[in-house]
Amino acid sequence: MAFARSRQALAIAGVLGLALGATACGTGNDKGSDNTGSAECSQYEKYKGNDGKKVTIYSSIREIEADRLDQSWKQFEDCTGIDIDHEGSAEFEAQLPVRVDGGNAPDIAFIPQPGLLKRFADGGKLKEAGADTKAMAEQNYSPDWLKYSTVDGKFYGAPLGSNVKSFVWYSPKMFQEKGWKVPESWDDLIKLSDEIAGSGTKPWCAGIESGDATGWPATDWIEDVLLRTAGPEVYDQWTTHGIPFNDPKVAEAVDRAGSILKNEKYVNGGFGGVKSIATTSFQEAGTPITTGKCALHRQASFYANQWPEGTKVAEDGDVFAFYFPAIDPAQGKPVLGGGEFVAAFADRPEVQAVQTYLASGEYANSRAKIGDWVSANKKLDLNNVPNPVDKLSVGILQDPKTQFRFDGSDLMPAAVGAGTFWKGMVDWINGKDTATVLQGIESSWPK
Amino acid sequence: MEFDWAGETPKFLMLMYGLIAFVAVVGGLLLLLDVVPAWFARRREAQLVAASASGAPLPRRRKPREGLFALFFLLPTLLFLTIGLVVPAIRTTLLSFMNRDGSGWVGLENYGWMFSEGSIIRVLTNTLTWVILVPLVATAFGLIYAVLVDKARFEAVAKSLIFLPMAISFVGAAIIWKFVYAYRGEGDQIGLLNQIVVSLGGEPKQWLLESPLNTFLLIVIMIWIQAGFAMVVLSAAIKAIPADIIEAARLDGTTPWQMFWQITMPSIRPALIVVVVTISIATLKVFDIVRTATNGNYDTSVIANEMYNQAFRYQETGRGSALAVFLFVLVLPLVIYQIRNLRQQREG
User: Is A285 domain-assigned?
Assistant: First the structure.
């Protein structure tokens, strides 16, 4: 019996370990005391009347970013008495449809893919945004943005955070030492690349490995180039399948991206040849810039968080970013980016209050002050954005000349945008020719 | 960064509650399982003692009570099997005949797609390669190793070395091997395999990129894990061969070769079948290794991985379900064979 007892003890100890892991994921959510009467609360007057109500939010935002979210709406919660319960999941895209189809939808989801938002809207799962939310969104965001959360003329929610993808990362120090200038046109960019290649360094570094999302950084490349060669209108037709995926204009853009990405003279600084792009993780892809083995790396604003510890990200620091230059000046200043939308599966008054608040300038400034956040909200004051790259991004997003377009792979049906497009790009880097790859993706577009 | 203990207090509180709740539930269950049967046994014992003391005939067991008791223990299993297995299986089968979001019937279209789309045919042939190679090689390795180390001096140590990988999860194993296959174009290699190649004067290669080599490299991971399982089961079977048979064979002057093929192999045949079938089923369902190492890129995908991608990533529920049903159909005969085999053994 003693033996059996000790075995039981062992078993308990074993599963306790599992429980430790499981419960550590839960979050405690204690709300502060009620101070609805104070002066700071006056700005939340219009959201009042929902004291004690609870709103659940589901998103892909986790860990420190999630803590910052909780912090950003703390005052709103304290003043209005609405309890916002946020849950972030690494499997958000896969789990949200499961939850919605299973009748367990959150009140609000921060959806980063307009394609997914459209699917829920078409399925009748989403609730149309209230009049207040709509007015607030129209006041603070450009029509370029709002069209991505509008399906069949119905508006489903305002954008929240965003990012700018049309950036090339470089080292201001290296540029200064070598006497290189930040290029302002595509021709300058190619000239600079040739010059760097001539000096014995491979100018570009890239990496598209990203676990189960491998391939996405290359799709961004294609989208960014297409936006520059063919213009925003053609880009819109392409993402909505108005023109075939393998239209000659697309093939031209892919080949132009290939003139950098598949050029053995240009890539892959610090990692090897062209094919090493496929197996280099996007997180480490730009790091050779810090060791001088690579000079240029095209990646979104959020790459600022990926640099090795101790790297100063600033215009006069170790690394910084410049705008990926336009090719055809007639097409204006095209900017590729992404962001999430505050879509609601419920239309209770407290849910709509939260939706409206998140679209407001007050919220944008409150969240920006905490750091590491970019939004296209017009009311966002640049002085409230602490980080230099974020400041640059917000500046670009607020520039009236900017022609903003959403990341195309997030607009396409998931089977293409999160499937064959990604995989096609991996094959393309791995040596397949442009025509075959594009034909393959075109034939996979859901009919 | 400083760790903010005070700020994390609510999380630690949650953790504590979780632990307490867990101990309560598990402890309660263990107590129930331990105490209830013991109580029944004690009562029965007391009855017997009382009966024998009074000299009366032994009381008969009261059957209905026991039946009720069995039902009490069976009910949760039946309930959970229905909710967790039977209902989803039926639903998945129905969904496989429906369109993308399950809103209309499409007949056999999803199955037609499965056998006509080039990339999916590739997935099927990959799975076939896996299911042929892994059980055979892993079992062969396990068997040879078990025979070689049997009664050797360091048998226990030698066995645990091979058995250790069993303790590593598929995901962990895939990550470890990803490092083995890692590639650096410039500077020092961080991957074992490339370092060996380089020190032998070769050029480093991107192992996981080249099809079909990469599928075989992934298969090596599975074999690495499963060989230990095969070895342990087969070793136990070898030890269970009656000593008199071996002794008789020795007296007859058998060579080691004859001993292996005429004595060992026939004696451990049932165990061998169990091992091969078990590994085959595990291999058919392999998902973690492929998803972690390559996510099915570079032509390495297998059915389970493609099923997940179609159903949950691409929102192609119909196609995903069709793949799931196909996988089920492939596993089913193996399971039936396994069960029949076990039953025969028990009866025979």
Answer: yes
The span from the CA of A160 to the CA of A170, in Å, is: 28
Measure CB to CB from residue A19 to each of B19, B100, B310 and give the nearest one: B19
Residue of B nearest to A423 (CA): B297
Those residues whose C-beta lies under 8 Å from the C-beta of residue B17, and which sit 6 or more positions away, are A23
Q: Which residues of A touch B298 (CB under 8 A)?
A: 278, 426, 430
Q: Pick from B45, B69, B70: which is nearest to B59 by CA? A: B45
b vs e for A379-389, b when ≥16 Cβ sit within 10 Å of the residue's Cβ?
bbeeebbebbb
Q: Is the same domain home to A270 and A358? A: no
A contacts of B14 (beta carbons < 8 Å): 23, 26-28
Same domain, A261 and A331: yes
- What is the mean predicted confidence (pLDDT) over A284-308? 91
How is chain A split among helix, strand and coil, in percent rounded to 5?
Answer: 50, 15, 35
Residues A122 and A268 in one domain: no
pLDDT at A112: 92
Q: Are residues A140 and A181 in the same domain?
A: no
- Chain B nearest-CA distance from A270, in A, is 6
* CA–CA dist B69, A354 (Å, integer): 53
Q: What is the pTM of this model?
A: 0.77
Contact B186 A273 (CB under 8 A): no
Q: State how far residue B205 is from chain A, nearest Cα, in angstroms.
A: 10
- Give one DSSP letter per residue of A379-399, joined into a string: T--GGG--SHHHHHHHHHHH-
pLDDT score, position A12: 45
Class of domain B109-347: mainly alpha
Report the complex ipTM: 0.72
CATH label of the domain that carries residue A374: 3.40.190.10
Range of the domain at A394: 50-164+337-404
Q: How many helices (H) and strands (E) does chain A have?
A: 20, 11
| pLDDT value at A15 more than 70 | no
**Does residue A421 sit in the same domain as residue A347?**
no
Q: Is B258 on the interface with A (CB under 8 A)?
A: no
Intra-chain end-to-end CA distance of chain A, in Å: 66
Total tally of structural domains belonging to chain A: 2
pLDDT by residue (tens digit) across B164-189?
A: 988 899 999 999 999 999 888 777 88
Distance from CA of B14 to the nearest CA of A (A): 6
Q: Mark yes or no for CB contact B297/A16 under 8 Å.
A: no
Q: Where exactly are the structural domains of chain B? A: 9-95, 109-347
User: Does A184 map to a domain?
Assistant: yes
Same domain, A124 and A145: yes
Q: Which of residues 89-108 of A touch B (CB under 8 A)?
A: 93-94, 97-98
pLDDT higher than 80, residue B64: no
CA separation for the pair B307, B293 (Å, rounded): 17
Between the alpha carbon of residue A254 and those of residues A220, A221, A250, B276, the distances in Å are 11, 9, 6, 48
The end-to-end CA distance of chain B, in Å, is 66
Across the interface, of A94, A272, A418, the residue whose CB is closest to B186 is A272
Supply the pLDDT for residue A28: 39
* Calpha distance B186→A276 (Å, rounded): 10
